[in-house]
Amino acid sequence: MRMTRIEELDTIDGDVFLLRPSEESAAALAAAPANEHRPSYMQDQHLRLRRAMERVGSADANWLGLCFDVEGPLDVDALHRAATAWVRRHEVMWGTFKDDPADPDGELTRHAIAPEDLTLSLTPLGSHAGDEVNQVLLKHFSDAVDPIDNFGYAIAGVSGEDRSTIFCGFDHCYGDGFSVLLAYMELSQLYANEIGDEQVEMPPVKGYMTYAQEERADAQQYGIDHPSMQFWADYAMDGAGAKDGFPMDLGIAEGERFWLVPMDYDILTAAECDRLEAIAKEESATFPSVVYAAFALAARDLAGASAYRFFNPVATRHTPETLPTMGWMINVLPIHIPVAPEATLFDVARDVRQKFRDARVCEPVPALRVMEVVQEAFGFSLEDTHRPAIVSYLDGRMIPGQEKWAQDRFHGTTGQGYDDNVNVWINRTPTELYVMCSVPQTPTAVANVDAFFTYASNLLRGALTR
Fold first, then answer.
1. Single pTM value for the model
2. Transmembrane ranges (predicted)?
3. Which residues contact 405 (CB under 8 A, 6 or more apart)?
């Protein structure tokens, strides 16, 4: 599975169909009163960021998506039934968020309809070929995935002769990166059920908005005396004057944001990964810690940094009922990796391993709950348009269904937008280790991101010669 922008996908030629919540469902949602559900911490942060970006006339890359192939011409009616079953299955898909005009603090209210009232309309978009397919899908998905005041998702299909492609796009408040994997597994299975290839029952699922209320209630127990607060405070103090996120110059002045372009790098082959993992174990490190260490050394050697700093996502799907839940079930850990001038790759890797172990104290406490408690110390505003960049690691070999990714040409997709930093996704698959990142489109940023990951890759390959 590769993360790819829609406009760069190798799509097929064919008839294009769009599925969105029907006019009847949209009207029912518009009339639905606010319910007692509040957004989860991550939803709330995301929606506030959307509003903050709107105020400055900008937009972030606010949505996620996926696509995968199925054999033969598309059975459009079967897709319609499968997509309807899927959106009715997940509570987060039943509603939207609206500004509360009675609340001067800008709180958002949740509005939803009953799942049995949620229907999808099917719109033929004509026959298209080549880049036309990408542009048609991008336009309609960009229009559809706005979650404020309306449903923020869409599903599409491209029907070809020998094979067809199913697409799905949703605003980030409906799901995280794992939700992309989940949507692929469930939509492909539901479609297979509908065309009669096989019959597999979906497992029970917990409603995300129900989970969000439980998360918020649970978070209230964590006050200033919880060890996570000290860990975050140490991170803030360690970073006084330091740069979070991508450590090299991006050619961006304070307050500027640039259009994001995708860049990806093949770092190691599967055989090289296996060899490096064995060496890491001999060195009392782990494979991921060595990868992070290579990035830290690149920050030191190319940018003169004394530390490598980033936010690392961790999953909060801890029960069988939440594992298949569509939603944003992620927390972030603050990671500060000091890099001494004389430190070697494995010196740093051992420190990284310990740093991640120490950071586990932060896992149960939503990062935004921490900010609620210690806002003054961090100087952090929920209305700010700046967020420290993330560096995420995913081992796709552990994901059920990964053996079908290549066969189905499964891709994750991302939206378009502006930013002033570089987000990094490290992906280990059965065939390789690669990095995908979103990069502000400046000559300096593109050149330095390329230099950074080329250097880190060479460091890792150099470790294999021992």
1. 0.90
2. none
3. 1, 396, 429
Rounded distance, CA 316 to CA 333, Å? Answer: 12
Q: What is the DSSP letter of 56?
A: T
pLDDT band at 19 (very low <50, low <70, confident <90, very high): very high
| SS3 label, residue 282 | helix
Amino acid, single-letter form, for residue 168: C
Please tell me the distance from the alpha carbon of residue 31 to that of residue 180, in angstroms, as a whole number: 30
- DSSP 3-state assignment of 298? helix
Put the strands of the sheet holding 14-21 in their side by side order: 2-5, 411-414, 63-71, 163-171, 153-159, 14-21, 120-128
Separation between Cα atoms, residue 44 and residue 292, nearest integer Å? 30
Give the separation between CA 288 and CA 311, rounded to whole angstroms.
Answer: 15
CA 225/CA 166 separation, integer angstroms: 49
User: How far is 89 from 321, CA to CA, in rounded Å?
Assistant: 13
Least confident range from 293-307, 388-402, 421-435: namely 388-402
Q: Is the pLDDT of residue 331 over 90?
A: yes
The dihedrals phi and psi of 207, each to the nearest 5 degrees, come to -70, 135
Say which residues have a Cβ less than 8 Å from residue 75's Cβ, sequence separation at least 6: 191, 194, 195
Instruction: List beta partners, residue 312.
Output: 333
Backbone angles phi, psi at 234, to 5 degrees: -60, -40
pLDDT at 20: 97
CA distance 246 to 286: 23
Q: What is the mean pLDDT of residues 121-147?
A: 92
Q: Residue written as tokens 């960049």?
A: 389
Is residue 328 within 8 A of residue 173, CB to CB? The reply is yes
pLDDT classification of 46: cutoffs 50, 70, 90? confident
Q: Alpha-carbon distance 355 to 275, whole Å? A: 24
Q: 165, 12 in Cβ contact below 8 A?
A: yes
DSSP string, 249-274: --S--TT--EEEEEEEEEEEEHHHHH
- CA–CA dist 250, 443 (Å, integer): 8
How many CB atoms lie under 10 A from the CB of residue 31?
9
Residue 187 in contact with residue 82, Cβ under 8 Å? yes
Which among 85, 91, 87, 86 is positioned nearest to 35, based on CA atoms?
Answer: 91
- The torsion region of residue 196 among left (phi > 0), alpha (psi -120 to 50) and beta comes to left
Return the structure tokens found at 94: 């039943």
pLDDT, one tens digit per residue, over 308-317 is 999 999 999 9
